[in-house]
């Protein structure tokens, strides 16, 4: 949700999850997700009108892939409305209305971008982004997209060792005293991470792995048909 009161913008996630220490692919993915959610929460009629200001946190190509329409940045309408030659009273009223609407949209776009950037800088240690800082202007000329692109390029690349560790995590034994949902969540997280690393874990492989984990508990031997169905649904 959002408002335009003097108190400013109100995001769905007022404070991003802080990244303690060096960013990683997992923490960067969460940061991107939270920023995306906040950007979407502030309405805009541009770019199809369904994704708010998501264009502030996604590249043009990524936004187009989601919205199927280009987000055109609101232009600065200037300081005063332009009425044209010999305008009528009605034309003056309409151009004033259009000018105020354009000015409001432009100011909102800037405000959302600044607020998102402030959130990102609060969540990530300065040492990890200061390569983009100007000697005197600091991050005034850097956009949220600039900062995210730098972070993903520098810290968000998934390595083969991380993919191997992800597979080990998927295969980790499950304690049946824990809710079964904890196992489904782990499976989903591991598959999502593998997908980000361009090394997806096939559904059939995942189901076999989950069934083996459950079998090793020695508790649910009579319910494997149920768990086979649940595993397939959880991994889909």
Written description of the protein model:
This protein is mainly alpha-helical. The chain folds into 2 domains: 25-155, no CATH class; 160-235, no CATH class. It has 8 helices and no strands. The chain has helices spanning 25-41, 60-67, 89-123, 144-155, 160-171, 180-196, 203-217, 224-235. Helix 1 packs antiparallel against helix 3, helix 5 (160-171) runs antiparallel to helix 6 and helix 7 packs antiparallel against helix 8 (224-235). The two termini are 31 Å apart. The relative contact order is 0.10.
Could you give the topology of this structure?
Elements: H1 25-41, H2 60-67, H3 89-123, H4 144-155, H5 160-171, H6 180-196, H7 203-217, H8 224-235
Helix pairs in contact: 1-3, 5-6, 7-8
